[in-house]
# Entry
Amino acid sequence: MNKRLLLIPALGFAIMLAHLLSAPAKDHGPWVDPLLEPLVDECIQDMDRAGIAYQRAWHRMDSVLLRPSPPGTVAHVKGRRHVVIDPSLVEKGPYSLRGALYHELGHAVFNLSHHGNGIMHAGLLKEADYAHHWETYRQQYLRTCGWNRHEAW
Ligand SMILES: [Zn+2]
# Structure
């Protein structure tokens, strides 16, 4: 085989390898849909500020996706490693999206069950309800995550 023909893929491979080696180490957990990234960052910052150890379970997750959910649901955890948020929540409003994301991360990262009237309520709340009570719901949620942190898988 012509040596020049081999050189092109070899060069491509060398460039790819150099890029991989120079890239910063992936220490930020799952792949996150770019549209959900600001809210995921917000949740992580909330955890950091509250001193909650989320890293171990968070790093075991594979993805946080914006994909259609099965009929009758708007968000779910798939195989413990994937959080799936239905795109319809983007239209429902920022607090519905935030509420659903925190809720599913509560299941996936902290093994939380459904309880109370806030973020871990079994059903999706109204946008106005999330918006009006967000600070209260968030504080309740963070307290529960803090208690459950050692149960995170
Ligand atoms: Zn749930």
User: Anything to note?
Assistant: Helices lie at 3-22, 37-50, 55-60, 88-92, 94-110, 127-148. Residues 103, 107, 114 surround zinc ion (CB under 6 Å). The first helix runs from residue 3 to 22.
